[in-house]
Amino acid sequence: xxxxxxxxxxxxxxxxxxxxxxxxxxxxxxxxxxxxxxxxxxxxxxxxxxxxxxxxxxxxxxxxxxxxxxxxxxxxxxxxxxxxxxxxxxxxxxxxxxxxxxxxxxxxxxxxxxxxxxxxxxxxxxxxxxxxxxx
Length: 135
Hints:
InterPro entries: Tscrpt_reg_HTH_GntR (IPR000524), WH-like_DNA-bd_sf (IPR036388), WH_DNA-bd_sf (IPR036390). The protein is mainly alpha-helical.
């Protein structure tokens, strides 16, 4: 089984998103990107608290939410383990797309866009692209 170093949570206190939801979202992103796989152990609440200076109950709330969604399983005395992955394409399958996106991101940065500007632009295009998928 893999160690818990596969995911490092970064908390943005200015985002307006609840801290526990940031942990849930970042865990799901790691699952989608293949950074976390079934059998991997998530960092312990203590490890997350030491790295982020958040309340241990916040970490436990996030892990309970992930467990409720069937993504992880808490094993008493052992930790919290990933039970299933998310996403379709394997990391190798999305390599060309990742390279194109990295190139686009570098061009956006060279054009003077800040990280938040790039994120807003990407999210707007993403939302518009997937609008037609909603029934």
